[in-house]
Amino acid sequence: MILETARLRLRPVTGSDVGALVGLDSDPVVMRYVSGGVPTSREVIEGWVLPRAEAERRAHNTGMWTAVDRDAGHFRGWFALRTPRHSHRPEVELSYRLTREVWGRGLATEGAHALLTLSFRELGAERVFASTMAANIASRRVMEKIGMRLSAIHLCDEDILFGSGSGEVEYELLHSHWETTTMAWFQGRPFAGQTHPQVTARARHAVGDLTA
Ligand SMILES: CC(C)(COP(=O)(O)OP(=O)(O)OC[C@H]1O[C@@H](n2cnc3c(N)ncnc32)[C@H](O)[C@@H]1OP(=O)(O)O)[C@@H](O)C(=O)NCCC(=O)NCCS
């Protein structure tokens, strides 16, 4: 399934993305809160990342989406939905990673919104969650901006990776909460039945278009 937002096209990852994925994970700043700056090898991307994404896509319509500019088609990173193996409820884990040159433009928020919409509207998820190192403020901010709430804090004893000494945080958004906030905006009745064009326009922009 291909998703489109105002600025991004998200398409299922393929073997043709290997070079771009290796390049992304070779930037130690990008990998700082993922692996302590250690790059991911081509072998791991070809032998584990891509097969896992393909298995997810086949089994659950989830997996990994390559993010490219809608206009120029430049690689910007990826967004992913993973189905936990031993979960007792319909839930998916959201994650994302973008090339450093596009940080700070709201693209992670835009793409994450599109996957939230897909999860709740098309995939039947009851809960979408995401986790990161507590020190990863940019990632936490994206989670907050898409409406997620802090749901768990995992403390780490040792500073195994850079920044992990302050632990990991998990954020979540429940379908019921998403419905009562986003969907109310969509209907143009955010405040006691009054139409509020500014808010409605913002909500439409944030959610983006879903294209099957
Ligand atoms: C996390 C990541 C995807 C964010 O991408 P992005 O496109 O820059 O995100 P957005 O522009 O949508 O939002 C980032 C927000 O974090 C804020 N932010 C970034 N660094 C910050 C810092 N050091 N302190 C405070 N706020 C910070 C930005 O100001 C922005 O918030 P605002 O819109 O309220 O100003 C990107 O930094 C990345 O790929 N990091 C490496 C991989 C990673 O850490 N992935 C997440 C692991 S789970």
TrEMBL record:
<feature type="domain" description="N-acetyltransferase">
    <location>
        <begin position="8"/>
        <end position="176"/>
    </location>
</feature>
<dbReference type="GO" id="GO:0016747">
    <property type="term" value="F:acyltransferase activity, transferring groups other than amino-acyl groups"/>
</dbReference>
<protein>
    <submittedName>
        <fullName>GNAT family N-acetyltransferase</fullName>
    </submittedName>
</protein>
<dbReference type="InterPro" id="IPR000182">
    <property type="entry name" value="GNAT_dom"/>
</dbReference>
<keyword id="KW-0808">Transferase</keyword>
<dbReference type="InterPro" id="IPR016181">
    <property type="entry name" value="Acyl_CoA_acyltransferase"/>
</dbReference>
<dbReference type="InterPro" id="IPR051531">
    <property type="entry name" value="N-acetyltransferase"/>
</dbReference>
<dbReference type="Pfam" id="PF13302">
    <property type="entry name" value="Acetyltransf_3"/>
</dbReference>
